[in-house]
Design brief:
By secondary structure, the protein is of the alpha+beta class. 46% of the residues lie in helices and 15% in strands.
Length: 125
């Protein structure tokens, strides 16, 4: 969980790599720098943007209980505080969502639709 404007100045992929390599799979903030957001998604790290009010509630929950648990539902695009049941929806590009759900990078995705690509190319001839 991070403060507002996370990733500002972290336009290099190394910022996302470092976080992912440390074992994190999700970063929650009320605002992400665009370049960091894209680099995070390209490296399997989910940046979840929540409202300032929900972020404050998350920080309060963690202050009350440092072991507070939160559930990320990528399919339903929600983040839920387990102790209170309070939930907030987050947005994610459908393509990046599919890649995260399947562990794909851009090349893996193209390989996964190779039959469709072949059919398209054959129809163009």
């Amino acid at each position: 969980v991070a403060g507002r404007n996370f990733g500002c100045g972290s336009s290099r992929e190394h910022a996302a790599w470092a976080i992912a390599d440390y074992g994190f799979r999700v970063v929650v903030s009320s605002f992400f720098a665009d370049i960091f957001r894209n680099n995070a998604l390209n490296n399997g790290l989910l940046p979840i943007t929540v409202s300032d009010n929900f972020l404050a509630a998350i920080f309060a929950a963690i202050a009350d209980d440092p072991a507070a648990r939160f559930t990320v539902d990528l399919e339903g695009q929600t983040l839920t505080a387990e102790a209170t049941g309070r939930s907030e929806r987050f947005e994610i590009d459908a393509y990046k969502k599919r890649c995260l759900q399947n562990g794909y990078d851009d090349v893996d995705y193209l390989c996964s639709i190779s039959d469709q690509i072949r059919r398209f190319e054959a129809a163009r001839k």
